[in-house]
Amino acid sequence: MIAIGSDHGGYDLKQSVMEWLDEQKIQYKDFGTFDRNSVDYADIAEPVANAVASGEYEKGILICGTGIGISISANKVKGIRAACCSDCYSAEMTRRHNDANILCFGGRVVGPGLAQKMVELFLKTEFEGGRHARRIAKIADIESRQK
After folding, report:
1. Which of the two ends of the chain, N or C, has the fewest CB atoms closer than 10 A to its terminal CB?
2. What percent of the chain has pLDDT over 70?
3. Helices 11-23 & 112-124, crossing angle to 10 degrees?
4. Which of 52, 48, 57, 61 shows the shortest CA–CA distance to 21?
5. Which sequence positions are flagged as catalytic?
6. Around 64, how many Cα atoms within 13 Å sit in the side-chain half-sphere?
């Protein structure tokens, strides 16, 4: 199951992504926002990131105006590797090499077709492991040393 959320800047694109997820019969939970009224991206990023970090949800999708603020916020949660992407290659490689567990993008940066393709690649691409697992372990080690 996928956790999804957006601030007001990503609301319309989130609606489009959820329509695509419905068409693909991919289950998700919408963590908000539920309209176009202004909301702080950190207030959406944190519950989505916590839901993914806890293992309750396999992966997450977060959308704000640029994808940047919401990805920075999500990455403050231990165990989260949120990647802000604006192209298909990055969306695929962040899974393959970085084992990213949340895909972030901007509602004012990418259109619905590109967003849907990035989500498709992100959800279907497996982590390669190998030398990349060693690098992910180093990220976890950095997290463990933070106070």
Report:
1. C
2. 100
3. 50
4. 61
5. 64, 97
6. 20
Residue 26 one-letter amino acid: I
The alpha-helical segments, DSSP class H, found in 1-147 are 11-23, 41-53, 68-74, 88-96, 112-124, 131-144
Cα separation, 67 vs 72, in Å, equals 9
Count of CB atoms situated within 10 Å of the CB of 44: 26
| Residues pairing with 103 in the sheet | 61, 83
Contact 58, 71 (CB under 8 A): no
* pTM (2 d.p.): 0.97
Name the residue with tokens 């992910």. Answer: 136
pLDDT digits (tens, 9 = 90+) for 76-109: 999 999 999 999 999 999 999 999 999 999 999 9
C-alpha separations of 113 from 65, 103, 116, 117, 133 in Å: 17, 16, 5, 6, 31
- DSSP run (H or E) holding 104: strand 102-106
Residue where the block lists tokens 């990055």:
90
Q: Please check whether residue 53 is in contact with residue 100, taking contact to mean a CB–CB distance below 8 angstroms.
A: no
